[in-house]
Amino acid sequence: MQTVRHSERTLKTALISKNPALVSQYEKLDAGEKRLMDEAFRPDSDLFGPITLHSQSDWITSHPEAPQDFEEFFSDPYRKTPSPQKHSIYIQCIGLLGNTRSISEEYVKWLKGYCEAFFYGLTVKLLEPVPVSATRCSFRINDNTQNLQIHAGQILKFLKKKKPEDAFCVVGITMIDLYPRDSWNFVFGQASLTDGVGIFSFARYGSDFYSSHYEGKLKKLQKKSSSDYSVFDNYYVPEVTSVLLLRSCKTLTHEIGHIFGLRHCQWLACLMQGSNHLEEADQRPLDLCPICLRKLQSAVGFHLKDRYKVNLFFKALVRWVDAESTDTPTVTPKHSREDPLSLPKPVEAFKEWKEWITKCLAVLQK
Fold first, then answer.
1. Are 115 and 225 within one domain?
2. What is d(CA 149, CA 219) in angstroms, rounded to the nearest whole number?
3. What is the DSSP pairing of strand 197-201 with strand 189-192?
4. Phi, psi of 270 (to 5 degrees)
5. CA nearest 206: which of 190, 222, 217?
6. What local confidence, expressed as pLDDT, does residue 345 receive?
7. d(CA 70, CA 22)
8. How many domains does the chain have?
9. pLDDT confidence of residue 81
10. Exactly one of 33, 39, 116, 255 is catalytic; which is it?
11. 172 pairs with which residues across the strands?
């Protein structure tokens, strides 16, 4: 195990900059906001720690990248920012995300609410769900895992055509595995920063995907023609769990962060860290480190105190974890499309973050 640890001076420069205009901008934060941000370069901080590498296959080791500090992000002439005319994040569901339509709709609503909190200040809207056939994309069975896959690049073209006038970006989400080209095994997601579109799959986040008992395997693709999408009529959807929801929330906000121009974080443990495998993705925190948080704040224009003290992200997540659900979603017996049964709100995997959230709130409210 290896730790990527930067000096206090390096972290302070990465966060605040040496540019007088950006330093002045930072100094205008209120006392609580600066206290939280300054945790980035406090050596004894228990909120934002160094990056820990667990294997040689981890992202930083296998994908060397130049780190992006706040000044570099702020000065990037190619990054796109929301405007009054393009101020909405659209979510496009492709296929079902749950065993029933009602579960799928509820799952998308959870993700929408999470994005509204995370990207506070922007509007998050849902496009009408579409079946795979609507995208006219190519599909195949993966030779290694024998599961269905759809072509990510062709779905990006579909999303670009559907992009509404007021959209900052459109992100497609699906429970079907993705591949970017025939020579690739799979991809978790793919995005076009120029076009402001992305497609992300949660298929491999199910607890059983890598199991020998995975029920989504197909031996042969029965395809009558290029327009025959009947194989997706009853495709396998993993059981909805709190771990699946947590992984979905992390992936969605991480990838939308890229569309804002945030590159992979190499400063501190952060949601924007790259991940090469599921174990590494699970180790990423739920939120941004102060350096990446300042980037997002600059792009969206929210006040940190509104996002953390007044608005949803911390307090609502705590309430969501604590609350007994009175209006819970529903689920059917495994992999059924029939009438639903009761399902408790899946919050167990979020509970480990409650203590961290409470500490952040305490720093803001001192």
1. yes
2. 13
3. antiparallel
4. -160, 150
5. 217
6. 62
7. 9
8. 2
9. 92
10. 255
11. 92, 199
- Per the annotation, the verdict on 106 as an active-site residue is no
Q: CA 109, CA 106: separation in Å to the nearest integer?
A: 5
CA distances for 217 relative to 141, 175, 186, 317, angstroms: 9, 14, 15, 36
Query: Which domain-ending residue is among 260, 286, 302?
Result: 260
| Grouped pLDDT means (10 residues each) for the chain, 366 residues | 91 97 94 92 92 87 91 94 95 92 89 88 95 95 91 96 96 95 89 92 88 81 74 87 91 93 95 88 91 94 68 58 47 48 67 81 82
Contacting residues for 254 by C-beta, under 8 A, at least 6 apart: 271, 272, 284
Instruction: Map tokens 């059917």 to a residue.
Output: 332
Q: What is the CATH number of the domain that holds 134?
A: 3.40.390
Phi, psi of 23 (to 5 degrees): -65, -45
Closest to 41 (Cα-Cα) out of 256, 291, 263: 291
Residue 235's domain comprises: 80-260
Taking a C-beta distance cutoff of 8 angstroms, is the pair 186, 179 a contact? yes
